[in-house]
Write a structure and sequence with these properties.
two-stranded parallel ribbon, 70% helix
């Protein structure tokens, strides 16, 4: 189980060719007083800003831009902490793994709860997608311990792409506002849904698919090699 501190990192994402050079540049030009721990704290603060922005969007849609700004802050802190530690050769693998991913769970909860408290996304759908995100996160951490591979990209999608999709969703909610459809579901009566619900729900279903398919494949593979 100690493999979590000594693993192969797999992050094959669509935005990787843009993100990796940007992070290396930021690490090389960061002031000496900026530490990886401070970056982690900045990432958590960014998610708090996103949460506040989503809640205040109930007052005025302009606060969706505050939520988007929070995603930018979160990306900066959450993505730079590990890069900065590796650039300066001050890695603390066990401590870093623990702190990074426990705070990740906190930030995920803040973001999805905030999204569910915004005016255009159902709280139920936001929480369902949060559950899917957390399940996939658990799978990532368990696989890291079992096979020493820290794989955070599935279908060339990772946390950075998730933030980019959230920014696009925020932009759509600001410009197009509330659009709701009343659906008649057999035995359940009318159900009001927005296109943003469908978008968030589709992301949740995709995350569930990645979780179930990867768990099944990995379980079969481990069963064969352990006989």
């Amino acid at each position: 189980m100690g493999r979590s501190a000594d693993h192969v990192r797999v992050n094959d994402i669509l935005l990787g060719p843009l993100e990796r050079p940007a992070l290396q540049w930021l690490a090389a030009h960061s002031p000496s007083w900026l530490t990886p721990n401070m970056c982690t704290a900045v990432g958590v603060f960014g998610s708090l800003v996103t949460l506040v922005g989503y809640v205040l969007s109930r007052v005025h849609p302009g606060f969706f831009w505050l939520a988007t700004f929070g995603f930018a802050i979160n990306w900066y802190g959450d993505s730079l902490d590990g890069t900065l530690a590796r650039y300066r050769h001050i890695e603390r693998p066990v401590y870093g793994f623990f702190i990074d991913h426990t705070t990740d769970a906190i930030t995920q909860v803040m973001v999805f709860v905030g999204l569910g408290l915004s005016p255009y996304v159902s709280f139920n759908i936001a929480v369902m997608t949060l559950v899917a995100y957390l399940l996939l996160s658990v799978l990532v951490y368990v696989r890291t311990c079992v096979v020493a591979e820290f794989k955070i990209s599935y279908g060339m999608l990772g946390p950075t792409e998730a933030r980019a999709l959230a920014v696009l969703l925020n932009t759509a909610m600001f410009f197009f506002g509330g659009r709701f459809w009343r659906l008649g579901l057999a035995g359940l009566g009318p159900y009001v849904v927005s296109p943003y619900d469908l978008a968030v729900g589709a992301i949740g279903m995709l995350l569930f698919y990645f979780f179930l398919s990867t768990t099944t494949r990995e379980g079969i593979r481990l069963s064969r090699i352990s006989r």
